[in-house]
Amino acid sequence: MHDMYATDKRDPTINGGGLVYAGDYNLGVLSLLDPKRHTVETIKVPVRDRNLPASNFAQPTMQVPSLFWGEELIWSETQRTEVKNVDAKGRLWMMTTFRLPDNPAWCKEGSTNKFAQYFPIARSGRQMAYYDPKTKQTTLIDTCFNTHHAAYAEDQDDTIFVAGLGSGLSWFKVRVFEQTTVSSGRGLRGAANWRASIAPSARC
After folding, report:
1. Are 26 and 71 in contact (CB under 8 A)?
2. What is the pLDDT of residues 43-93, one digit of tens each?
3. How far apart are CA 186 and CA 177, in angstroms?
4. Strands (E), 35-191
5. Among 14, 22, 133, 135, which lies 20 to 30 A Cα-Cα from 44?
6. Domain boundaries in the chain?
7. What mean pLDDT value characterizes the chain?
8. pTM score, two decimals?
9. Buried (b) or exposed (e) across 54-69, using 16+ Cβ within 10 A?
10. Sign of the dihedral through C-alpha 76, 161, 99, 87
11. Which residues contact 56 (CB under 8 A, 6 or more apart)?
């Protein structure tokens, strides 16, 4: 297991006595621990594309043959699923890879999207998703920016700030996504935003 969550840091009373979630970084599997029934259920996080590339952190060859596996590579880290938070609706938010790295046109140079015009992003190594235990459905969120660690704001948009490798500072407005997806079907483009991050030079 890579990490584990059971509640929302902004309100630790959420999901009291509910499921405890853990993410498997290698296999793209969620483990759901029920502390009341003393049971564990595993579910596979869905993917959109097959043949996802291995993570840059996964070794391409065996440095030393395994006594059991020999030269076989068993650690590819194709989905790199990390659980991040349980929100007020009891949904588990996660960062996970579900598609190939090439971004859709609205993320790239030449797009009419104002964030892409400012800082176009051609590739995204990992995206976002959430799992709803009530419906047992996983919603995939196809972000332009890479995703990694996240911080959850206490604002009206329920904003998730994301530190993605190579993507600058990114943020995702959950309320905007939900409202505009229902009304127009274009919620993602209004909810997923980013800016380039520029580190100050040591000579300044």
Report:
1. no
2. 999 999 988 887 776 677 778 888 888 888 777 778 889 899 999 999 999
3. 8
4. 39-44, 82-86, 92-96, 127-132, 137-141, 149-152, 159-163, 169-173
5. 14
6. 3-56+77-195
7. 85
8. 0.85
9. ebeeeeeeeeeeeeee
10. positive
11. none
